[in-house]
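Build the 3D complex.
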Amino acid sequence: MSTDSEKRAENGVNVEALLGAREALGETPEAGKFVWRATNEWLHGTHSRSSVEGYFGLGGEHDHKSSFDFESDHPLVFAAEDNAATPVEIVLVGLASCLTAGVAAVAQNRDIQLRSVKATVEADMDIQGILGADPDVRNGFSGVRVKYDIDADADADDIEALVAQSQKRSAVFDILTNPTNVTVEVG
Amino acid sequence: MSAGVPHTSALVVGAGHAGLAISRHLAASSIDHLVVERGEVANSWREERWDSLRLLTPNWQTRVPGLAYDGADPDGYMDMAEVVAFLQRYARVVDPPLETRTTVESVRRNGAGYEVTTDRGVWHAATVVLATGGCNRPKVPAFVAALPDFVESVTPLDYRRPSALPDGGVLVVGASATGVQIADEVHRSGRPVTVAVGEHVRMPRTYRGKDILWWMDRTGLHDERYDEVDDIVRARRVPAPQLVGTPERLTLDLNALTDAGVRLSGRLVGFAGGRAQFSGSLRNKCNLADLKLGRLLDTIDEWIAGQGLEGEVEPVHRFAPTRVEESPPLALDLAAEGIRTVVWATGYEADHSWLHVPVLDHKGRLRHDGGVVSGSPGLYRIGLNFLRRRKSSFIHGAGDDARDLVSHLAAHLGARVPAEVA
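Done.
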């Protein structure tokens, strides 16, 4: 990090705490194991409500400052009521939120002052998959595109590197680009 | 009609069990016809099968119009030499007008009928029956292009025996009958096998003392018609059940493979950076197959109870759920794991590329209604998965389908004649 008297970048990310945590985990790797949780309850039709309240990490249980709710539904063109975002849109929200958090953290670490960070996310899907109309078409996205517009005290190459590093450390980017074992049981 | 071009009422492409069954019914209806065959009778059974393969169906079930198995081992399963011998015998029974070593290069419309071009001449035919088999080409995913050079890519049409594969690990992609059979014998050859498992059909070889196919035959499940099932598109895509024909009547499900030391992973989704990547859906696919097996056995049990046969067969039995490890592998580093071969047991498709009649859909598949080709009167297809019945792809399925299709064909010829006279 720079040690000159120039004003330090301030993006609101506590990088020292994150770097300290990384060092601490070197001694106690068990503390790095987190369990994230959500609950979901059907409301009506394709409308449901999910809540996140607590999670496990750093060796113990934690509560969020408050419980956060997320509703989801399907759109009118699916003959649904469109009470809330579609689940696949919430996946895009997760990806963009994760990458943007990463951009801020990496910028802070690299002493780059951000002024504006905006992302647009698009995903392609052929609904012949979920409708079972063509078994060769997958249910999920066939491709996801994220475009960042970033105004920051850095040249184009540094901004490019910022976004690349953010992908490298992004949980949701990994979740979308690599397989995960998923188990669904009935209680 | 052009001078010099021979004419027939029906031209049958292919002299396997289905083409011969069609010929048998055409002859019974006194319809003049010709069977053309690119090789010899039963060509694909001779040329395109691996050494150890036996039929999935027991011998008693090997029956075609005019011939049924009459040997000493009704509960056994024919090897390929026996299948070829059976079909040669059937060819003598049917005695079709046959041109062997004759490859069809093109079928085109010609007025109300068809012009069939072969490497040994042209025929005009009022009707054409395609009996060219359902397994002409292996279906291999496009991402095979990303397979590293040190890994050999083998399809079931090329595969003959484990010793022909390079030493080292083998990734078998697919858990249909083909996938589990190849996985089992390759693993026994000392080449460690991983099977990538997608949607599959689990079946025990025997249930309540009888071959599982005996029950499917008796309960009428094999006779279920294409226009009676909920979703025929899906039904036609169901992979072949995890069965193998062995003298010991062994069950070869995923638990049997696991017991033998074979490793299971989820469905193969691609290659990236020298690694095979697998879906995380293995447990779901196995649960689905276990549930479907349970429903099949329930159906059989209900039938037995309904027939009052409860005391005459072995008691009700349920099989242990498919065992899936806690965290199945999601990736396999091909170099580090010593994988030298990938076997694509990912299904087959029919090849209709020589059919120059606009009857194929956007994916090159034939549009047909139970084997009556849509949009081109007088053109028929036999021998595809669930063509008219659940048993259509089996040897014993050809008889009923051939009878139905020849009946339709005869009506078509009958309707056409007065129109021509007029």
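The longest strand of chain A covers residues 60-72.
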